[in-house]
Amino acid sequence: MSLPDAIHRANSHSPFLRGLIRRETALLDTLTTDGPEAALTTALARLDPAHPLPSVRHARAGVALTVALADLAGLWPLETVTAALTRFADSALDAAITAAFAERDSSPAGLAALALGKMGSHELNYSSDIDLIFIHDPDTLPRRPTEEPGEAAVRLVRRIAAILSERTADGYALRVDLRLRPDPDSTPASLALNAALHYYQSQALAWERLAFIRARAAAGDTALGRAFLTDIEPFVWRRTLDFSAIADIRDVSHRIRDHYSEGQKPGPGYDLKRGRGGIREIEFFAQIHQLIFGGRDDSLRAPATLDALPALAAAGRITSDDATTLADAYRRLRTLEHRLQMLDDAQTHSIPRLAAARAAVAGLAGAPHWRALESALLPLTRTVSRAYDRLVAEDGDRKPRLPHDSDALDRWLAKARLADPPLVRSLLAGWRAGRPRALRAPEARRSFEILLPTLLPAVARGKQGRAGLLRLDSFIRALPSGVQFWGLLSAHPPLVTLLARLLTATPLLADALARDPGLIDTLLDPPPPLPGPAEAQAELALATRNLDGEALLDRVRRWAAERRFLLGVRLLDAAIDPLDAAATLAAIADAAVLRLADAASARFAARHGRCAGCHLVILALGRWGGQALTAQSDLDLVLLFSGDFRRESDGPAPLSATAWFNRLGQRLIADLSVATAAGRLFDIDTRLRPSGAQGLLAVSLDSFAAYQSAEAESWEHMALTRARPLGADAAAVAAAQAMIDTIVAQPRDPATLPREAMAMRREIARHKPAAGPWDLKLMRGGLVDLEFIVQTRALLRGAPIPPQLDRAIAAVAPELADAHGVLMRLLVLLRLVMPAGDGAAPSAATGLLLARALGLPGFAAVKSALTLARQQVLAAWATTFQSGETA
């Protein structure tokens, strides 16, 4: 790759770099003529402590452009790129410190800035925070006559952070993170020297030892900083490790995997830094080995990951293969991370969910398309994950347990701050006595005990703690068995955290898991890509090959339950867009209905033969037809058949086509709705068929077309705008689609149809008013109003329209696209976490989940987005019906 090519790619794919290229023409000339080192020196020369805010931002812009283009052009390897970014951070920090002291008419002394994390190891990325701990010496820190040393230090640190982080017209320079100091919520922003020494030498935690592997004195009074780090060196690098220290290190490794890694497969939304098999696991793989062996071998104390891995291999502490493969993975993951951050100068580590953004990343990377990058990611992350899996292999015998002694248990409960300790003691006594079926076996109770120190606090803290405890007890009592389930959870700690979240956030999923504990197995592997209708049908066909009768019904139910459970968990994690989840739920329904329809047809044919030229067509309506189901959706359908309704079947017990398909329809609906040993599949609603519940269950296409043309009311035609035919015979499905298109496209009276639609909406409001303030379907300006607008406009348009509501909106009501996105995303999530559907306002915790899914900063923003969506719907209603009345 060449520098001109790098400039072209930056211009084409990165709005941030494009702006810098336009503004930094002189620097670009220096880069082109004299090379990146000269350009970097020029950019750093802009730093001026006399004018700190503009100068550090101006310097940062030059550094960002220089380093990005040198990186994209392949002029600098990763190590040089990260060193250059760190060089700027050091220089900018030093300038900010000098400026802060100068504003107080003093010179820097007595205040040291310790760099940790990637700044400490000279590995900064394009959009890193800088992790700092400030130490001050009260005896040498300059201060004003009325100030205490601690007050002066805190004021200096706040000013330093503001110089670097505050947004001005020129942007920001560096985001400063001070949270790695001890107890950051209660300790001052700068630590007094002796207090810091006392803490790190006597009270510090294992993760803090890990953090200080990469610590260095970066700026300010560097002599003070170096002396402090020398004094705490025995805390970081212990020459002897007792069993307690080794257990601490092992516990750190478990917490890292449990907290950050959720098994996601590389693809949209995957976090390159924190995801399973990502950057952080490589860093911790090296650092944990360094903690264990670096106390006696100072050759293993290299702060940088790419230096530590070969050093560990040379010392025989890890294999050469691990060192080589992990270093290669680290370079490639870090390089891709840089491409993500180059797009918009954003502090992100996640692969974009939008295809256009992924294409831009690929363009920056010089790849032909995103899939070329994605295909290389999976083997990388698998390699890293396997290495880290070996490192954190379980050692269950050393895990903490809840005390059995009554006084010790009381102390544990007090420290854990659980809700209702008497209830905890009562429930715990019953569990330990093996009263629930799932805890009768000693092996089950042993595994369960391992989980309790994590599980109880996760479900029993906060205002809903008592409810969480009762849900946990109900869940345990509903489990059919426990040996395998509790054993699996004790071997996979992230699943314990997930179980707690299900119990506290989504009782619907927790109930499903209690009915079928085997669902937990679906979470052990990285989640597969969301299937479309064809993929779901192929997957189910493979899973049910050679099955019939009860075995088929059970297997279809288990398959659908597994897919819906996994989908719900991913929604809870905000790992997928709720709209994608709704489409996937519809694909699952398509596959299940078509598979059972095929099996029922085969059974009927064996006894009654087939009606030549006649084929079943299932008309999916409502949300199913529109491929936008929720976790609580019924399936609205009408059964049709092609061919001559008078034709007889050719089997030993012949039936007319009408009788054949009506009896088949009864069998199919029973197969779909009956509860078997594997549970229920779907609730089915067939009331939209001609003549409603009193009419035939299945009618011929010709009869249905005649009814729709001559007898159907406007609301029935509105329902047809979301009709989607399914079936095994392509010609019959095509004929049904053509019939729907004809009905939808027929001319309408532009005065009569809106009037009838408004009358229908009033009737709905009279018989089924909104259940509460968050009834997203029935509220004024809600989804029912939106659907009425779209369906009315679609019929007035006089042309076929897609059944998917988002595509129909694009055709007839584009101003409602955003409102639809907000309302549907909220509906999908609320049907999962608040299945009662009573329209009650969400809790604060649910509000945060909604905010994450919508990409909003908090629940208040969600409420604002909902208000705006409703206003947009009401405005469109007034335009469509020339009225502000919706009920």
UniProtKB/TrEMBL annotation:
Classification lineage: Bacteria, Pseudomonadati, Pseudomonadota, Alphaproteobacteria, Sphingomonadales
GO CC, any one term: cytosol
Protein's UniProt name: Bifunctional [glutamine synthetase] adenylyltransferase/[glutamine synthetase]-adenylyl-L-tyrosine phosphorylase
MF terms in GO: [glutamate-ammonia-ligase] adenylyltransferase activity; [glutamine synthetase]-adenylyl-L-tyrosine phosphorylase activity; ATP binding
Sequence ranges assigned to domain Glutamate-ammonia ligase adenylyltransferase repeated in this UniProt record: 12-229, 498-736
PANTHER family documented for this protein: BIFUNCTIONAL GLUTAMINE SYNTHETASE ADENYLYLTRANSFERASE_ADENYLYL-REMOVING ENZYME, GLUTAMINE SYNTHETASE ADENYLYLTRANSFERASE
Keywords assigned by UniProt, alphabetized: ATP-binding, Magnesium, Multifunctional enzyme, Nucleotide-binding, Nucleotidyltransferase, Transferase
Organism annotation: Sandaracinobacteroides saxicola
Entry EC number(s): 2.7.7.89
Stretches assigned to the PII-uridylyltransferase/Glutamine-synthetase adenylyltransferase domain: 264-391
Annotated Gene3D superfamilies: 1.20.120.1510, Beta Polymerase, domain 2, Nucleotidyltransferases domain 2
CDD domains in UniProt: NT_GlnE_GlnD_like
Class in the EC hierarchy, top level: transferase
GO biological process: regulation of glutamine family amino acid metabolic process
Pfam families found in the cross-reference section: GlnD_UR_UTase, GlnE
